[in-house]
Amino acid sequence: MMQYRALVKVARWLFISVLALISACGGGSSDSSGPTLGGSTFQQCSVPDQNQVWFDYLQDWYLFYQDLPSSIDPEAYSSVSAMLNDVRSAQDRFSYIITKQEYDEFFNSGSFFGYGFSLDRQMFNDSFVIRYVFNNSGAANAGLQRGDRLTTINGYTISEIQQQNIDDETVFGPDEEGFTIEVTYTNTNGDSLTTNIVKGDVATNTVFAADVINTQVGAVGYLSFQHGFIEPSEAELQSAFETLSAGNPNQLILDLRYNGGGRISIAQILGSLVGGDTTNNEILGTLDYNDKHQDSNSTYRFNNQTNKLAIDRLIVLTTDNTCSASEMIINGIDPFIEVVTIGTTTCGKPIGMSPQEYCDMVMSAINFKVVNAEGFGDYFDGISSQCVVNDSIVADWGSTNDPVFAEGLYYAQNSSCSISKMNGFERYIAPENRENYQSILFNNTY
Hints:
single chain, alpha+beta, Pdz3 Domain, 2-enoyl-CoA Hydratase, Chain A, domain 1, 3 domains, six-stranded antiparallel sheet, six-stranded mixed sheet, 12 helices, 23 strands, 25% helix, globular, disordered N terminus
């Protein structure tokens, strides 16, 4: 057992993030081997000591600290993850812990080791559907595209993978540079094809399409922004909005269907580019910490961006994977510009975390709630869609064969939902049964 508990000192040492973040992202690092409290240095990252340090931190900085159990022994748990999963509040579907390497690869460098695609793993006609493919990845080089349906992977049919619960390493192979799998798939034209995909380092992109469409009601912009609000996103967004602003659209269709969140600083840039002069210097969101740390509350404002738009309406394409910083964009812009949501209800995360590092692990525990300029942030059940369209991955980005995009374009031209979508039936999933947040955030990438 630790010889000394010093909650405030532990929290002060741990709370080292430079930026507050709306989902698991950001954070700082320490050069020390461990905190020294009251003259007693903890052992070198033993599991019991880690558990106690993290539990002390939660008691101080966790938004729902009142819900933590009062009579447990944190040091009795076999891992920090086991402890966190057991003690977190029933209101919290989101807090988690990962290694510092995993954290840095996703949020800072935007890279991972794999084939370079994201799958929708709900089996459809004995296949997995590709949500998106990263540029210059093994999957891209093999010719795979959004909407392709994988029917076999590495010799296993999708039915076998699902029914026999075959593990990912068996299906996708070891993490070895150059390891190759063979897949058979059906493309969006209905052709059955076979190709080989080579595993390697993947530099992820978050902008997948940026275009301006000329319609009878004027120019309509389209931006597909997926896979997180991460460090490399800033340069991608600036480039995309240079293209969009040149077309002078009066409406923007913002596709956030598979964007689970990320850095508030990136949300601030995206929101400012979208809102332009209309929102400049207005409040995007205010972060409200627990009653022990009200002095940490902060406000993020829209700012001036060179490639800003001047739109009258923002149309956002959503699913239950639209989460966190993505929802902050919807909720933050809504007081100033007409916002229309099309698709299905978002994930419901009006809360965020300031990730902390200790012993080569990074914990993202809920620290604050987020409200917009009107003080609204009560969307724990998600932000509902005004035009309900269930996501169907049947075509590439910006194709009118994609029913969700097509509905967005219809609304831009008609200022209403199409008759068939006005009261559509949504495949609603209760919050407690929704996909694991880490799966939403990392989007089943391989």
